[in-house]
Amino acid sequence: MSGGAGIEHFDVAVVGSGVIGLGVALAAVERGQRVVVIERGSEPTGASIRNFGHLCFTPQHGTARELAMASREIWLKLAADAGVWVREAGTLIAARRDDEFAVLAEFADARGAEVELLTAAETDARLPIAPGVAVGGAFLPLDLQANPRQALGAISAHLARTGVEFRNRTAVGAVRPGRVETSRGPIDAGEIVVAANHDLDLLYPDLAERHGIERCGLDMLRVAADLSAPLASPLLTGWSLVRYGGFAATDAAGALKRRLHAEDPMLAALDLNQMYTQLPDGSLIVGDTHYRGTAIAPFQPETAFEALLDVTRELFGLREVRVLERWQGVYASGPSDFLIERPEPGVSVIAATTGIGMTTGLGLAEHVVAGITGDRATITALKGTA
């Protein structure tokens, strides 16, 4: 079908093939829509493949929690339908000081069966960390783990089998109601969803400025480490407890943050989230630091990587950790968890803006597509930014 001589027409055009863009395509094709995904690269290389693969549903708060739990069901369905590697591993948290355990105890009181508190002995038994490091911990059974390097390719292949068309190595120059102007010619669509992550400011700079959207860069590593046992679940630490919304909402989190920042201002300046996941090949993903700006310099100070390796050796009681890969992640960052805007009729611009796209993005996409196709919205309170 065409919207003019040589112009293709689709029901839904998606700009960007990260996890949110693919989620939009999935939600639309499941509703019988004809869908095209436009990606400037030959394959996704952005934030959606540069992360831990940790699907941390329970630690989210407010709207992010609702979208996370909606995403959980979609991830499990994709594991069955698309061959996405998903491990129902939960999340383990090591509390190294009493104030960290206080956050976990308060969080457990609020979430009930979603949080299992662990004694120091139970934590040592379940984690390959140095003996005596933890005063206690917690297990979050609902969380999942994916392999980001495998997941997007598997989802894309599944979508292609269901009829979604992909236009890779195709740059988008402009979007207006009913039309996407690309480097391969115009594409017409009844609805257009821009899910271009941090590059949304290239298409909608005024919108990005109005909502305070900038780029967040981060430093990450993949290492080989001789752990005393496999890491059965993604692992969070005290630095994680002052980042995720559910933990940060506890009364105890404020005192923890003050103590962490006073004791180690260098790690605080790196805006550390000390966490780990283990890939199927046994290697560990280690991270991460955070730094923000309208542009992110490609130059990564070695001091950040040295700090990540130091805290890793200390936590696991290791003398040596061998670095296999280093990389820089970049994602859209803003004052709220999400950007959801309708700048023009038939055009939606969406992003997860606090680094939780893998966890919440599929639920966000489902919600947005439900709204534009006239279905009942999954998250009734979500409008604009949340």
Automatic annotation (TrEMBL):
InterPro entries, alphabetized: FAD-dep_OxRdtase, FAD-dependent_OxRdtase_HpnW, FAD/NAD-bd_sf
Required co-factors: FAD
Occurrences of domain FAD dependent oxidoreductase (ranges): 11-369
Gene3D superfamilies assigned to the protein according to its UniProt record, in alphabetical order: D-Amino Acid Oxidase, subunit A, domain 2 (3.30.9.10), FAD/NAD(P)-binding domain (3.50.50.60)
Keyword presence, Oxidoreductase: yes
Statement: the UniProt record of this protein carries the keyword Flavoprotein: yes
Keywords: Flavoprotein, Oxidoreductase
Family: Belongs to the DadA oxidoreductase family.
Name of protein: TIGR03364 family FAD-dependent oxidoreductase
